[in-house]
Amino acid sequence: MARFRTWVGIAVAGALCVSLAGCSSTGGKRAEDARKAAAARGRAAVDTPRWTFAMITHSGDGDTFWDIVQSGAEQAAAKDNIDFLYSHDDEAQQQAQLVDAAVDKKVDGIIVTLAKPDAMKAAVARARKAGIPVVTVNSGSARSEEFGALTHVGQDETVAGEAVGEELDERGRKKVLCVLHEQGNVGHEQRCDGVDKTFDGKVVRLYVNGTSMPDVQAAIEARLQSDRAVDAVVTLGAPYADTAVKARQGAGSDAEVATFDLNAKVAAGLRDGTLGFAVDQQPYLQGYEAVDLLWLHKYNADVLGGGRPVLTGPQIVTKADAAALEEYTKRGTR
Q: Within 10 Å of residue 48's Cβ, how many Cβ atoms?
């Protein structure tokens, strides 16, 4: 499979032993098999209380990335005997109100993204005051501990950007267009900052209206037509990669297109060579581990991360990985 950046020191808690039985010898294997079978049938693999966890993200409508996060969370919730509630809003104030609503419901745990952390601070503080444990996921790792969260699950966005900058250097690129589709998202800025930190060439930022793909395509195409020195385009979300490819074609540009995140189209683009590479932060794992970590805390007062994020990426994936990835993207887990 794909190359992991060993210098990142990814600390994924993917091998957690979450059953009430031991995980040793053949008994452990039988217990693991039983858990897998139970989860596949949507039944709990544990007999802990039926706790309720709420996940509130900054996703907009129709974002396939968050479908994958939600899928992972639901799979873990089924296994852990959790009543799982999911809600989202790409407007920070509305997202904060959804957190408040979860607090009012007296849920047993909250999973929340901090794409715009200042707007979420009061809502998270209210959850903590109510005694509700909070895990942050995907965005806002730098503020997670400050807000009193148990831990953060996701990739370090600056480190991910640094990995992209290094990959572009290896490919001999000289000028990259970093396309930001959501203004005010601190994670997006950190990604471009990371690229700028390690890339030996020049980084140009392009802010686009991410809610309109025609506008995104027109903006990228216009920039590529006006600046022929741009030899790489990096989008910050999988749905925008195909749009960038179309913009490149419309502009008659030879710029290589790369993207953060995966979906079925990205995997296909890697396979046919229309995309150079992608950065996978494993969203299924983010949802799955966030639920598991809350369950472990409720059941056994466990906390992972030691004050640092539990990292799920970055993982650079290329054409060599496409065949294996396509199988997983089609089932909605990568």
A: 14
From residue 301, alpha-carbon distances to 35, 197, 293, 295, 297 in Å are: 21, 39, 10, 9, 4
User: Cα angle vertex 247, ends 282, 195, to 5°?
Assistant: 45
190-215 mean pLDDT: 97
Both tokens of 56, joined, read 């509130």
- Give the CB-side neighbour count of residue 111, counting CA atoms within 13 A: 32
Query: What does the chain come to in residues?
Result: 334
pTM score above 0.90: no
Three-state secondary structure string covering the chain: CCEECHHHCCCCCCCCCCCCCCCCHHHHHHHHHHHHHHHHCCCCCCCCCCCEEEEEECCCCCCHHHHHHHHHHHHHHHHCCCEEEEEECCCHHHHHHHHHHHHHCCCCEEEECCCCHHHHHHHHHHHHHCCCCEEEECCCHHHHCCCCCCCEEECCHHHHHHHHHHHHHHCCCCEEEEEECCCCCHHHHHHHHHHHHHCCCEEEEEECCCCCHHHHHHHHHHHHHHCCCCCEEEECCCHHHHHHHHHHHHHCCCCEEEEECCCHHHHHHHHHCCCCCEEECCHHHHHHHHHHHHHHHHHHCCCCCCCCCEECCCEEECHHHHHHHHHHHHCCCC
Q: What is the mean pLDDT of the chain?
A: 88
- pLDDT at position 269, please? 96
In this predicted model, what pLDDT tens digit does every residue of 27-79 receive, in sequence order? 444 444 444 544 444 568 888 999 999 999 999 887 888 999 999 999 999 99
Residue type, 224: L
